[in-house]
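Please, structure for the following, as tokens.
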Amino acid sequence: MGEWIGRDRKARRCYGFDEIALVPGAVTINPDEVDTSFEIGGKKFQIPFLASAMDGVVDPKFAIAMGKLGGIAVLNLEGIYTRYDDYQPILDDIAKSTPEKATELVQKLYLKPIKEKLIAKRIREIKKAKVPAVVSTIPQHAEKFGRIAEESGCDIFVVQSTVTTVRHVSKAYQTVDFKKLCKQLAMPVIVGNSVTHQVALELMETGVKGLLIGIGPGSACTTRGVIGVGVPQVTSICDSMAARDFYFKKSRRYVPIIADGGMSTGGDVCKAFACGADAVMVGSAFARAKEAPGRGFHWGMATPHANLPRGTRIRVGTTGTLEEILFGPAKLDDGTQNLVGALRTCMGNVGAKSIKELQLTEIIIAPAIKTEGKLFQAAQKVGMMK
């Protein structure tokens, strides 16, 4: 499999969301009668949407709002909410910064040490509202922060880095043992990010309850440009789905995969599910919500890296409430609002009663799917061609 790209060197063709389309079903269903719920670690959620663990997207207030609407918002324990007691002035400074100075400012602001007492405080703030508390940390802090999070009432613990593997080699620091971590913590552990069949399979074998799939597709991420690493999301999700299904046949344990990044519209979200995702993690779409803490700005988790930033601050604007972005009514014509409605309508049109049935949808390679017949939209820069 693959094409020759030079003498003795082959490369596999991979695909992104803009290169495929979903084929309508022979049977259609009333969108109001489909089931969009999903389960992870024995916990059931009404909608299969997670808000990314990025400081411009999720603070405690946003996490509460998302939880009350039936989804999940992941709070970043490496961010400003665990470094500053009063984080509002910090968010103001980031929003006011010029594009040229934004990364430098973020790097400076994130130098302040993480306060363990704030980890517990933020989790308790979320739990007080009677919604699930879900937090994220890097592998190096997983064991330490995991204990604090669990003692504070955390419901799901996410361990996330740019590229995550079971077999990480380092002489400079102790690498995390995911199998040991999953046994130590009573709460479900989600790990990411990965993009290949082999790594997905190896991570599932450690006992994790979910996998984040995606390296570099996020709107605020620059990983693919900075270090050249990444696999387009359609191929990443399909390969990881194959690993999930193989592992299920072997172990009878189902490990959901969560497509993380690269989805800015309802169409992208629907394609992610058709490729095999059980849930999606979205950043930029939720950064546009009035409830988002970023003031219309969004920046990647690796933006504050001291030596090699792999993210940037982007302006996404504020377009509506979180409820409008999730459930509508949509006020925009570009597919960035009423994401749940888009998912339901897609499921109805392909004849899928559940997310698992949506994963069986016929997919075609269709590079002209976004441009065919869209001359006037392109000329006027409206709808799909903004």
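Residues 3-385 form a domain with the TIM Barrel fold (CATH 3.20.20.70). The longest strand covers residues 189-194.
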